[in-house]
Amino acid sequence: xxxxxDWIDVSKGxxxxxxVLGHTPTPDWLKTFIFAFHxxxxxxxxxxxxxxGNMTFTSFLFKKIKTLLLPYFIFSVLAYLFWVLxxxxxxxxxxxxxxxxxxxxxxxxxxxxxxMLTHNPALWFLTCLFVVxxxxxxxxxxxxxxxxxxxxxxxxxxxxxxxxQYVGIKLPWNIEVALTAIVFYSAGFLLKNNLKEMRDRxxxxxxxxxxxxxxxxxxxxxxxxxxxxxxxxxxxFYITSFLGTAGVIFSSFKL
Length: 255
What we know:
Helix content is 68%, strand content 0%. By secondary structure, it is mainly α. It has one domain (6-254). Helix 3 packs across helix 8 (175-190). It is globular, with a radius of gyration of 19 Å.
């Protein structure tokens, strides 16, 4: 069994707190700040702990079905049943007029559009992460080292950009979001050893500066919504995402 890494667990904890804050009655500026990087942070952290153990594609596929898709379908079905039987009967939830067939289809499509994930919107991350991890496995296993991964990720990033800016295709399991998310996942994998070396450096002042930079830059962009594949200015999105992710990780070194 692999030993857990404390600062990665702390980073996940900080990320969960940010997610909760981002979905509670908080000021718009705070939500805009949080949304600038909180989902890229989770994809980055997932890349940090990537491990395939020289498994075959089939073995890796079944592992991810067990650890990602099985929990997704279990929680999605349970949440749907609760929504159908209880939640949708209360008008204050804002979903009383939704046709029950729509979120039922959403269990299988896992798309946030058209009320498909009314019963539990947060579950989109699991299917998207599944797509990202399968894509990354193929890149890593069938490519030729780190350079191939970087080139392949740049290609997917361009495809994600073109779709966001010009095409706007919405695909099941948030495949179009995965084209952007894999950038952060791959960065986490490639920078793993570099972050280990920075573990004992003084990072608190740097953390503060990183978060200030995120706040300043985000004022030049729209509020990001990765689940909906809405990024505004992609250059600002990538910069604030990496700056915010670095801020959380550096702070976690000290927490």
